[in-house]
Amino acid sequence: MKDFKYYAPTHVVFGKNTENQVGELVKKHNGKKVLLHYGGQSAIKSGLLDRVENSLKQSGIEYVKLGGVVPNPRVSLVRKGIEICKNENIDFLLAVGGGSVIDSCKAISSGRFFEGDVWELYLKKAKATKYLPIGCILTIPAAGSEMSDGSVITNEDGGFKKDYCVDEFRCKFAIMNPELTYTLPAWQTACGATDIMMHTMERYFSKDDDMEITDSIAEAVLRTVKEQVQIVLKNPTDYNSRAQIMWSGSLAHNDLTGCGTSGDWATHNLEHELSGMFDVSHGAGLAAVWGSWARYTRSENMARFARFAVNVMGVKQDFKSLEQTAEAGIVAMENFYHSIGMPTSIHELIGREITEKEILEMADKCSNYGQQTIGCLKVLSREDMAAIYRLAK
User: Fold this and answer.
1) Contacts of 199 (CB under 8 A, 6+ apart)
2) Phi, psi (5° rounding) for residue 16?
3) In angstroms, what CA-CA distances link 132 with 23, 31, 82, 83, 98?
4) What is the 3-state secondary structure (H, E, C) of 58-71?
């Protein structure tokens, strides 16, 4: 078991109509002028944005609105948000949306007082020393950004997708009303469930086999999401199933499922280059590459993959061959992905064969042109990354 620190300071307000409490929550954290950050038209059409604005007004809080966040949030909009914060003396950031909106808010928070360009922070060339506080109203359970310390941003200039992680990014509060997810399209629901499961699996597939409580929590989260997503795809307004998925999304990425173990995160790094190059949905990209990563790395801890097969995927243990059990688990996971409409190859993901030139470009970017490795279960070089992309093609 690894030594660990667990830090989850976010105040979670979970349940029906909880978005109406946002004004008092911002006020509690001394917010006087808010940047209200959101995505497209869904928050407007649903009436959610009106309810949020009314709550802010009732609490005497001023606000400035900035919409337009898209999946794989862009650094150009982040820069616009930073300028608004400076010009309007914004003292609190409120994200209304999913992980993309929250990540965009986090980037704005880091850039507000930073002297250079915010992208330097994501390139790890510098670190901010002061941040704006953030709160969120979650509408898409997927990224877990509402309780995590991370933010991922895309730079349109070159299609680079990078992360930046600091404790200051942890939201002061996260409002979670499962009813706000009722109108999510099936594709977005499935992508979200995939992302939630992968956040857990990135921590679960480790060489550390002596943290039983953490492993058991991880397996419970995985089984729950796997079961409940099938229910909501058939009945989108099933409150109980939506609620379990929403809470699982937070538990999967607030580090609870990784206490005492070493996370891998190679699949996420590989996928970042896919969505950076092809602007695909993050969850779908994870599904497309995971099976190939699993087959490439499983020999590093075959027993772990066999345990996953039995305890999560319900595969029968083949006592004569750990490898056969492990492979059956990977196949079962890929079958699950297909059952909820997710791809299991890059060809399925982008609708065509990926070229060798594109594979090498992604491997270059993922490895910072050969200067860094990824992964923990198996440390992957640029050549390994290219090999996994080829397996996934």
Assistant:
1) 144, 249, 252, 253, 257
2) -70, 140
3) 17, 10, 10, 13, 19
4) HCCCEEEEECCCCC
Nearest one of 134, 94, 103, 129 to 115, comparing CA atoms: 129
Separation of alpha carbons 156 and 160, rounded Å: 7
DSSP E strand boundaries for 143-183: 150-155, 160-165, 173-176
Q: What is the 3-state secondary structure (H, E, C) of 318-380?
A: CCCCHHHHHHHHHHHHHHHHHHCCCCCCHHHHHCCCCCHHHHHHHHHHHCCCCCCCECCCCCE
Helices 302-311/186-204 angle, 10° precision: 140
Indicate the SS3 state at residue 171. coil
Structure token digits, residue 64: 């400035």
Torsion angle in degrees (nearest 10) through CA of 121, 200, 256, 306? -140
pLDDT in tens, 45-83: 899 999 999 999 999 999 999 999 999 999 999 999 999
DSSP characters over 175-244: EE-GGGGTT--HHHHHHHHHHHHHHHHHHHSSS----HHHHHHHHHHHHHHHHHHHHHHH-TT-HHHHHH
User: With b meaning 16 or more CB within 10 Å and e meaning fewer, what string describes 225-241?
Assistant: bbebbbebbeebebeeb
Environment class of 294 (CB within 10 Å of its CB; exposed 0-12, middle 13-18, buried 19+) = buried
Which tens digits make up the pLDDT trace of 339-367? 999 999 999 999 999 999 999 999 999 99
Calculate the alpha carbon distances from 95 to 92, 134, 350, 362 in Å: 10, 7, 30, 31
Return phi, psi of residue 186, to 5°: -55, -40
Helix and strand numbers (H, E) in the chain are: 16, 8
Look-up of token digits 């890059």: 346
Q: Is the pLDDT of residue 41 over 90?
A: no
Beta strand residue intervals within 28-117, DSSP E? 33-38, 62-66, 92-97
Residue 251 to residue 151: CA distance in whole angstroms: 17
| Separation between Cα atoms, residue 161 and residue 272, nearest integer Å | 6
Has this prediction a pTM greater than 0.90? Answer: yes
